[in-house]
Specification:
The protein is α+β, with helices and mostly antiparallel strands and 459 residues long. The protein is built from 14 helices and 12 strands.
């Protein structure tokens, strides 16, 4: 009876209200579940979107999964643009900067306060304590001297041989944690090695010098030879550790000997500048003398006064001297002909040209005199053969007449049978007339030489 009563009671109006509540609760739960599902899907989508990264122009990207580099060989590097990977902590896209970076290296400079840094080195106060280990840095040179130096190193990641290289980026990601520290260590090590092979003087004056055998630098450059050697050795160290870093340049910002020795080094520098000035003046004067002596032809005949070879050709005068030393007469005569051809060319001017012209005139005058005497001899030889005594007496008379008619001869006429007294002193009137005649003759010769001088002949 009780059960029937309860069953009938469930169909009462109160039971209808319970069914409605259950339905409302069920719909609410169903709606909440749908909203939660949509929210979870939205969160999951957002989670996947966090794996998106932007690779900039001056960057390269690497996709990682649980710390490992993903992708096939040769396709592991992501270029500029959007890149996606599984979000952290599962994966991520790591970007590596490839633009030029700089690191200042002051490990070999002495300690200085901010106030001292603004002063010139000549205004610094020399410490009575000398160098303080742990505070003051310095390089030890090959001649056991000290040099303070500031360096700046410019480098790029992901380059090999100054060209972008994907393998270099992989090497850098795998082997380098802090690029600045690695570069600083390599450059410091290289600077210590290079300084140990050079003298303090060569380090302080190494700008615009060619490298030497000790550092292995062979190229010539306006760049500092010390910096070139540091760059070469530092790059070799970075390549050995597979850092993927390329050193663009190493620059010496400042260098100085210890402050206590700066005055002595300055004196040496001034003396060297004076020496260079004297050398430059001497070279200029030598070139002027050579130009004045032979014009542009001196460049073919003699060595360069500066000592530097103008070309691979040996000057003609040096070739001629070498041929004479080797006793090679054939080569010497051939070279002498070449030298004469140069001397008579239009490029030969100056004193050499004047001397050549004077020699030509003298040669012509001697030839004319000899030809005249030969002609006179040929005219007289037949007459002499016909009547030798008569011809001899006539020739003696001609010679006596020429002697007595000479203006410089003083004649004395003697009276036969009378005592003759000879005075040593000449008549001064005759001496003055003879001097005046000689002066007029020389003046006339000089005027004639000026008229016959070529335009290029120096006065």
């Amino acid at each position: 009876m009780e059960e029937e009563r309860l069953t009938n009671g469930s169909q009462a109006p109160g039971g209808e209200r319970m069914d409605t509540a259950q339905k409302s609760l069920s719909e609410a739960l169903r709606l909440s579940f749908r909203l939660l599902s949509f929210f979870m899907i939205f969160v999951l989508v957002l989670f996947f979107f966090t794996g998106l990264s932007q690779v900039q122009t001056n960057e390269r990207g690497i996709k990682l999964l649980f710390g490992r580099i993903q992708g096939k060989q040769g396709r592991q590097i992501l270029n500029e643009g959007l890149a996606w990977s599984l979000p952290e902590p599962i994966g991520r896209v790591e970007t590596i900067p490839t633009d030029e970076r700089r690191v200042a290296i002051n490990d070999f400079w002495f300690h200085e306060t901010p106030e001292e840094a603004g002063k010139k080195l000549s205004e610094r106060r020399v410490s009575a304590e000398g160098l303080r280990p742990g505070w003051d840095g310095a390089l030890l040179t090959g001649d056991r001297a000290l040099v303070h130096m500031k360096l700046t190193c410019a480098y790029r990641i992901g380059f090999r041989g100054n060209k972008p290289d994907d393998g270099a980026i992989i090497d850098n990601r795998s082997n380098v944690i802090d690029a600045d520290d690695v570069v600083r260590s390599a450059v410091c090590n290289a600077a210590i090695r290079v300084a140990a092979t050079l003298t303090v003087d060569s380090i302080l004056t190494s700008a615009k010098m060619a490298g030497d055998k000790a550092t292995g630098v062979k190229e010539k450059s306006v760049e500092d030879a010390f910096a070139l050697a540091v760059k070469k050795i530092g790059q070799a160290r970075l390549d050995k550790m597979k850092s993927g870093i390329w050193i663009v340049a190493v620059k010496v910002d400042n260098r100085t000997p210890p402050l206590a020795a700066r005055a002595a080094f300055d004196d040496v520098g001034k003396a060297r500048q004076e020496e260079d000035t004297f050398k430059s003046d001497a070279i200029s004067e030598a070139r002027e003398i050579l130009q004045q002596a032979a014009g542009d032809s001196w460049k073919v005949l003699v060595d360069n006064p500066a000592g530097a070879a103008r070309s691979d050709k040996i000057p003609l005068l040096k070739k001629y001297a070498l041929a004479r030393e080797d006793n090679n007469k054939v080569a010497a005569e051939k070279l002498l002909d070449e030298i004469n051809m140069v001397l008579v060319s239009d490029e030969t001017t100056g004193d050499a040209d004047a001397l050549i012209e004077e020699a030509k005139r003298y040669n012509d005058s001697i030839r004319r005199r000899v030809e005249s005497r030969a002609k006179r001899f040929n005219e007289l030889i037949d007459k002499y053969r016909a009547k030798p005594k008569l011809m001899t007496s006539r020739l003696w008379l001609d010679v006596e007449e020429e002697i007595f008619n000479s203006p410089g001869i003083v004649k004395h006429f003697l009276t036969p049978g009378k005592k003759f007294i000879l005075k040593i002193n000449q008549d001064q009137e005759i001496v003055r007339k003879n001097r005046w005649r000689k002066f007029q003759t020389k003046t006339g010769e000089k005027k004639g030489a000026k008229k016959n001088r070529r335009p290029s002949e120096p006065r």
